[in-house]
């Protein structure tokens, strides 16, 4: 074996051994526990947001509701981080805000989720781990299926012209209309420090 080839082989072997050691040290993930806690976070976020939207709809109709959604969602996410320790955001291929765009890491999981957004009538989820050591993150992507009213009022195929104009004021780059009931209009991304599930 030539000297250069021998060194390359040794380097590859050392790297393989290091990766194997890292894999052995990585604790197994209790996906059921991750999903249970993540579903609770998603439910808490959606319940808080929907409560404010219903109040806004009753008080001022869709024009007020879209403003409340714009202002309230980030505040509710911040409150949820403080309450549970999980970062919560909404992401989509056709997003309303550029802050909800898909990263390269999330895109592959999102595409898979979009092919089957419901499982036994409930939003489907994808789980994966990213990062290493103290920076390791457990990611949960949970489908947001398009439902009937009130969702179709702001995200459907026939958004009123005055409401559409208001949406463009709040979200100049909006792409989140034209959905039909049953479509996946986005997903909730719930990110936990891996330490939250360490035994």
Shape: globular
N→C terminal distance: 47 Å
**Number of DSSP-assigned strands:** 6
Low-confidence parts lasting 5 or more residues at pLDDT below 50? none
Strand order of the largest sheet: 1-6-5-4
Count of spatially separate domains: 1
Q: What's the average pLDDT?
A: 88
Q: Please, how many helices?
A: 5
CA radius of gyration is 21 Å
The main sheet comes to: 4 strands, antiparallel
Share in β-strands: 15-25%
What is the N-to-C succession of helices and strands? HHEHEEEEHHE
Q: Percent helix among the residues? A: 40-55%
> SS-based structural class?
alpha+beta
Explained architecture:
The protein is α+β, with helices and mostly antiparallel strands. Helices cover 52% and strands 17% of the residues. The protein has one domain (29-197). The strands form two sheets. Strands 1-6-5-4 form a four-stranded antiparallel β-sheet, sandwiched between helices. It starts with a helix and ends in a 6-residue tail after the last strand.
């Amino acid at each position: 074996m030539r000297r250069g080839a021998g060194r390359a082989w040794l380097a590859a072997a050392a790297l393989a051994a290091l990766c194997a050691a890292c894999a052995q040290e990585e604790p197994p993930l209790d996906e059921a526990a991750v999903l249970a806690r993540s579903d609770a976070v998603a439910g808490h976020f959606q319940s808080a947001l929907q409560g404010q939207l219903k109040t806004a709809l009753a008080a001022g109709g869709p024009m007020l509701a879209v403003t409340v959604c714009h202002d309230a969602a980030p505040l509710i996410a911040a409150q949820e981080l403080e309450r549970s320790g999980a970062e919560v955001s909404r992401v989509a291929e056709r997003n309303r805000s550029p802050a909800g765009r898909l990263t390269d890491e999330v895109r592959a999981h999102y595409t898979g989720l979009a092919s089957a957004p419901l499982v036994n009538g409930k939003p489907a989820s994808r789980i994966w781990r990213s990062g290493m050591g103290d920076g390791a993150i457990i990611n949960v992507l949970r489908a947001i299926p398009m439902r009937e009213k009130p969702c179709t009022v702001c995200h459907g195929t026939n958004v009123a012209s005055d409401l559409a104009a208001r949406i463009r004021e709040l979200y100049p780059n909006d792409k989140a209309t034209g959905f039909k009931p049953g479509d996946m209009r986005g997903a909730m991304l719930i990110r936990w420090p891996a330490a939250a599930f360490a035994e």
